[in-house]
Design a protein that fits this description.
Blueprint: H1 6-9, H2 12-22, H3 32-42, H4 45-75, H5 79-103, H6 113-123, H7 134-153, E1 155-157, E2 163-165, H8 166-175, H9 179-189, H10 196-213, H11 219-224, H12 231-264, H13 292-295, H14 306-312, H15 317-329, H16 338-343, E3 359-362, E4 369-372, H17 379-397, H18 413-422, H19 427-432, H20 445-474
The protein binds zinc ion.
Length: 476
């Protein structure tokens, strides 16, 4: 995970609540389209250039303030730091909403590529655009909060009165191998969503209205417009790429189904039907790595354990980070700044609450790079550090760009860079850095590859279908 520049750090909730404060700045009796038309006839390309320069300045300053506040909140979780960080986020969101709507006055103007692109980026910065109507935007804000609340507090309560949180159930889904227990958990969690349906329908209707005001057919079309191609082409491109991966997924599916059939019986896992989703080790069947023990190929143990190797070679948290940094400097990247080591969080503090989920930050959009992570001395975490530093080196690579371009090539790319880098923590690499004496025979790679496929290949159709489902939900 990484902390993004202004664009993606705006939560839907904040967008909506800020709109509630700003949506009615115009004369209540004036009609938005007419206002825009009148303004549009008066503005020039010079006005657009000045508008963009001003917004870059305003948003840069706000972004710096917001990332400082967020960093402090994530590292010292208290009532006050939460309030301060929410307040500055609200301020930033309010500014983005205001500017995105102002940007519409340049819609019909001939502009150079660069100016048009920046204005488009500003318009697309909202995830759930609300209509410019105070009542409706307040309603959308309330729906987002309510849906989040139901999901976050959601519990499955059994007839005997005992209740399980999503966290409890996630742990059981990963480790239980009891068919009926898993089925019960899967179905139990899905009771939580039932009251969400009517709220979700209202949310869809309201945000579609907002997207239409910004000039998109619906919110799904707006989301698909972020990829430098027409919205419909993006959906087709995803289908094309998925077609390339599908044969590999089909093979994985076939193997996993056969192994699950051996484990649970072919009456429970029919070999000519889809796999019962509750047997895949995850509440959404989105990654299958938790059932590696069930589907592991024979004799695939590589004969070493990175966690043990780290201990044998006296790797503490700092040495793990230095080791990961060396991966990047060995490819010719400049070392991280001293401030990275002074300001990052590497170990879980004993005396206060922090967000332990690993994240990578660039506080000032220049070179104030940091990670925040409660590092454990395990092989898994050693890979995660490589992943996080992947974000940091990527952030640094675009730090001379204007703020509108200070982001990954598209919104999937940042994680992809991190994950690609983490893929390089191979036996060969471990030998090179002196952790492993001898690289195991290539035949041992099959276990590592299977683990990777269970998490990464299985996720691809899941991720795609979630987006396709949501796009369909926005079609009205
Ligand atoms: Zn990441």
């Amino acid at each position: 995970m990484k902390k993004t520049p202004f664009k993606l750090s705006i939560s839907a909730l904040m967008v909506a609540s800020a709109l509630a404060l700003t949506g009615c700045n115009d004369d209540a009796t004036s009609n938005k389209t007419t206002t825009a038309e009148v303004k549009a006839s008066q503005v020039t390309a010079q006005d657009a250039a000045k508008f963009i320069a001003d917004t870059e300045k305003e948003l840069s300053a706000l972004y710096l303030e917001a990332s400082r506040a967020e960093w402090i909140y994530a590292n010292f979780i208290t009532h006050d730091t939460a309030e301060l960080s929410a307040e500055v986020n609200r301020k930033m969101t309010e500014a983005v909403v205001r500017l995105a709507n102002e940007a519409a006055k340049f819609d019909s103007l001939e502009l150079d590529y660069d100016a048009r692109r920046k204005l488009d980026k500003l318009k697309l910065a909202l995830t759930l655009p609300a209509p410019q109507d105070a009542e409706k935007t307040a309603k959308l804000s309330q729906l987002v909060a309510e849906l989040g609340g139901i999901y976050g507090k959601g519990k499955y309560c059994k007839e005997d009165g005992s209740c399980l949180s999503l966290g409890d159930m996630t742990a059981k889904m990963a480790t239980s191998r009891d068919y009926n227990e898993l089925l019960d958990l899967w179905q139990g969690w899905r009771q939580v969503s039932k009251p969400m349906r009517p709220l979700y329908e209202q949310q869809v209707a309201l945000t579609n209205e907002g997207a239409k005001e910004l000039g998109y057919a619906d919110t799904g079309a707006m989301w698909r417009s972020k990829y430098d191609m027409p919205a419909d082409d993006f959906a087709k491109e995803l289908d094309r790429i998925w077609g390339q991966v599908k044969p590999l997924y089909d093979s994985l599916h076939c193997h996993v189904r056969a192994k699950l059939g051996e484990k649970y019986g072919e009456d429970k896992v029919p070999q000519d039907q889809p796999i019962p989703a509750h047997l895949l080790g995850n509440m959404w069947a989105q990654t299958w790595g938790n059932i590696y023990d069930v589907v592991a190929p024979e004799n695939a143990d590589p004969g070493y354990d990175v966690t043990e190797l780290l201990a044998e070679h006296d790797y503490d948290e700092l040495k793990m980070v230095r080791g990961a940094e060396k991966f990047f400097t060995s490819m010719g990247f400049a070392p991280l700044p001293d401030t990275f080591y002074e300001r990052s969080l590497f170990t879980k503090p004993q005396d206060r609450d922090v967000q332990c989920h690993a994240s990578a930050w660039n506080i000032d959009s220049k070179d104030d790079l940091r990670i925040k992570m409660c590092i454990q001395r395990t092989g898994e975490e050693f890979s995660v550090i490589h992943h996080e530093l992947g974000h940091n080196f990527y952030q640094r690579a675009y730090n001379t760009q204007p703020i509108y371009y200070q982001e990954s090539a598209n919104d999937g790319f940042h994680e992809a860079i991190g994950d690609t880098i983490a893929l390089s923590v191979t036996p060969g690499y471990l030998k090179e850095i002196g952790l492993l004496d001898e690289v195991p025979d290539e035949s041992k790679d099959i276990g590592l590859l299977m683990k990777m496929a269970l998490d990464k290949v299985a996720f691809i159709p899941f991720g795609l279908l979630v987006d396709q489902w949501r796009w369909k939900g926005f079609l009205r």
